[in-house]
Design brief:
12 strands, 8 helices, three-stranded antiparallel sheet, alpha+beta, elongated
Length: 331
């Protein structure tokens, strides 16, 4: 039950890590490292809590009594006649499932608590009967099979399940994951939707100003945002040139606002392979006149670079999503 609960916690934590890293604009390529650190740290901590915390001990049952090894050089011999009782620990903050062996040593009561022990039931029975009790081999087999099953589940979750594809950054989980193709040359998602020869081609567009949040999206002939599993194309807009357009001065020239016309390059990439599909340039000039007032902060000098309006971006990617690959190649 503990292993099942731990696997459930791992599943929830991995989803939380993916969400947190995405919110922090961390490259999806960092996900495998974050998940690896969590799994190693958490399972290592669990093993420490179960096996090492409180010290390692070993037990040996003989005809005349019990030997208790403390993990160091000391070995405690407990004659059967000195044993008072062995019973589950109740209260006192002890962990569930702990047992305590009490005995008399020179008239002084001593005890040892054992928690995670192989074949614990057989050990308790041997102490109660005051004689050796063979360890059932089935328990060891079940323990080994259980650990093997846990390892198989973890391996499946990381390598073969849909969650594994997301962790290994081979499948997008959010639309903002596609920004990776704009920020990293050659990036791609091997499990993304294939770029089909016929339209529509669900598309997302990113620019430098909005970071990892898509500026506009197009589901082709459908309405609303496309599902990340359906996106075939990623459009990336970047500033390639700006040109002085208008300078507005205020407070006798102590403050100014400078407007620039700009040219942007919009390149379209296939999400599955990272291959460049098409590209175009767009000129932006949204300057009308100087505003009556402006807040320039401490510097007293501010700049405003024109950018395509969301409507213009939307028209561009709608055209991209509804243009077939053969028609695009013929252009």
């Amino acid at each position: 039950m503990l292993a099942i609960g731990k696997l459930g916690l791992d599943w929830v934590t991995v989803l939380f890590l993916i969400e947190a890293l995405s919110r922090l604009d961390v490259d999806p390529g960092a996900r495998p490292f974050a998940v690896f650190i969590w799994l190693v740290g958490s399972w290592g901590g669990l093993m420490y809590w179960l096996l090492v915390r409180g010290g390692r001990r070993w037990f040996a049952v003989g005809d005349g009594g019990l030997l208790v090894g403390t993990g160091g050089t000391e070995t405690i011999a407990v004659p059967w006649g000195a044993v008072e009782e062995v019973a589950p620990v109740q209260g006192g903050g002890a962990r569930y499932g702990s047992w305590r062996l009490c005995w008399l040593d020179g008239g002084k009561q001593r005890y040892v608590t054992f928690r995670t022990v192989t074949a614990r039931a057989a050990l308790v029975e041997a102490i109660e009967l005051r004689e050796p009790k063979p360890t059932p081999p089935a328990q060891r087999l079940l323990t080994g099979a259980g650990l093997g099953a846990v390892a198989c589940v973890v391996a499946w979750a990381l390598a073969l399940s849909p969650l594994g594809d997301i962790v290994m950054a081979s499948r997008p989980y959010y639309l903002r994951d596609f920004e990776r193709l704009c920020g990293n040359s050659g990036a791609s998602y091997a499990k993304a939707a294939p770029y089909s020869a016929r339209d529509p081609h669900p598309t997302v567009l990113f620019d430098e100003e909005h970071g990892s949040d898509p500026v506009v999206t197009s589901a082709g002939k459908a309405s609303g945002e496309p599902d990340p599993d359906d996106v075939q194309l990623v459009a990336c807009s970047r500033l390639v040139r700006r040109q002085l357009d208008l300078i507005c001065t205020y407070e006798g020239g102590d403050s100014s606002l400078t407007f620039y016309r700009a040219r942007y390059r919009i390149d379209v990439y296939e999400a599955r392979t990272g291959r460049k599909v098409s590209g175009q340039t767009v000129d932006a000039d949204d300057t009308l006149t100087c505003p009556i007032w402006v807040s320039t902060g401490k510097r007293g000098r501010e700049e405003d670079v024109s950018a395509p309006a969301p409507e213009e971006y939307q028209q561009i990617i709608d055209d991209v999503s509804l243009t077939s690959e053969s028609a695009r190649a013929g252009r």
